[in-house]
Amino acid sequence: MTGPIRRIAINTGGGDAPGLNAVIRAAVTAAVNRGWEAVGIRDGFNGILLPERYPNGGVVPLTRDRVRGISHLGGTILGTTNKGNPFHFPTPQRDGSVVDTDRSDELLAYFRHHGIDALISVGGDGSLTIANELHRKGLRVVGVPKTIDNDLDKTFTTFGFDTAVSFATECLDRLHSTAESHQRVMVVEVMGRYAGWIALHAGIAGGAHACLIPEIAFDLEKVAAKIRERDAEGRMYTLVVVAEGAQARHGQRAVLAPAEIGHAERLGGIGEQIAVELGHMTGKDARVVVLGHLLRGGSPTSFDRLAALRFGSAAVRALEEGLSGVMVALAFPNVNYVSLEEVAGRMKAVPLDCDTLQTGRDLGMCFGD
User: What are the backbone dihedrals phi and psi of residue 128, each rounded to the nearest 5 degrees, phi first?
Assistant: First the structure.
């Protein structure tokens, strides 16, 4: 699509994250200040592709009044989904089966018919991969990086990550006292999928004694040895942080549900496995705490709120400058633009030589290796 911009659409896809509403507010306000209209698509692209679900409209006007006072709110006023890829849309069949259907042309036809000149797509790897494909088909698109997992490449951080780490750190702070009182091993499972950023940052900030991340295949005997070492020194409790995607050196990832059409596999359960095994190996009382979706909720920290506001504003500036197929990215001290081609399908894992991981080793943290 070419020509002047008069109306833009905003959508939020994938898992929710603190800061989504701040992006929406900034993008809408910046657009209105330029004389543009803004609309929001409900639940990823479902508001367009499944209009029957929305009696009040799957695409809603976003005015200055509609977005006033939402920056501090968690979640997203537009809703979100991780089952709405328009290129692989799950379509029920008469026999009860579900098949992939490419409905991207319907989506583009809707944009043309309703005079929507550009899309600001707010999401993680999956959503930005979709955004890149839409850009290839001619839609003007700017992506905004969102994930609590911090696993998107080409940006220093994603909004939502700082809030998740802050909450996980607070939980670890609280668990120190109860673990010490009962001389227990406490295993804390956190989200992160195939990247260990949340576990690593929260583990170090929260003073955990062992941290198991997907980037380092672990030997649980090394963790058991750390527990025995602490006991021998009179420190009779141990906190172990484990990322949901971590796996043993000769084991498999813990999966709660396999991948299905339109949805990736659901990880979880590794914390319980480790707690049971460590209990058997050390003879100590081992308990598990799964933080799960608690990490996604709540009001964004000031860091995430500011990053989200900067991203939303920068996305509108990118469209004003005639850019498309780019993602706004945090590169201190500024927000810059990187090609979606450089981001789509790429995951940012924890580098094994990064300063943060080395700090953990210097502090005596066990990584199971």
Answer: -75, -25
Residue 186 corresponds to which tokens in the numbers above? 């406490």
CB-based contacts of 26, cutoff 8 Å, min separation 6: 71, 308, 309, 310, 311, 312, 313, 316
Clarify whether 43 is annotated catalytic. Answer: no
| 271-280 long-range contacts, CB within 8 A, separation 24+ | 271/187, 271/188, 271/189, 271/242, 271/244, 272/189, 274/187, 274/212, 274/220, 274/223, 274/240, 274/242, 275/185, 275/187, 277/220, 278/185, 278/187, 278/220, 278/223, 278/224, 278/227, 278/240, 279/185
- What is the number of residues in the chain? 369
Residue-level pLDDT at 207: 98
Q: Catalytic pick from 16, 125, 149, 162?
A: 149
Taking the complete model, does pTM exceed 0.85, yes or no? yes
% of the chain residues with pLDDT over 70: 99
